[in-house]
Amino acid sequence: MKFPRHPILASVMLASLSLLAASARAQTAAVTEVSTAETAKAYRMDAARHIYAAYPERIYKGKLPPLVHAIVVLEMDLDANGQLKSINLIRVPTHAPDVTDAVKDLIRKAAPMPAPKRLGGARFTEIWLVDKSGRFQLDALTEGQQ
Description:
This protein has three helices and four strands, in the order ααββαββ. By secondary structure, it is an alpha+beta fold. It has two domains: 1-31, no CATH class; 32-141, Fusion Protein Consisting Of Minor Coat Protein, Glycine Rich Linker, Tola, And A His Tag, Chain: A, Domain 2. Strands 2-1-3-4 form a four-stranded antiparallel sheet. A hairpin with a 5-residue loop joins β3 (122-130) and β4.
């Protein structure tokens, strides 16, 4: 590509090319994984694996202690592209409202979830088991309790 000799026009063209490249990278990053699950129960496992992959440092490794700090039970509703439509709270820890807010924030930041293309969307319930340290396990992938 031959650039014009005028410095302002050249810098505008370079800036435009940079914006185009950034836009292409953003579109590539927005492509989500696709779930092959045929049931909501199977999809729940895919979503749990996705959340674990998003937060490997936050996962509680091994068996949870007999008493966990907080339990959050919620229902997630996703569209066919894995975009979060809603979070319906079913059970929240009244003694630890910060945990509920943190869980909702983790879900939103992990979105989009794997696209449930075969299901045309997904609605499922998940139980978040949260330790005092803030680390968690999801019921779908829990290693159990001591």
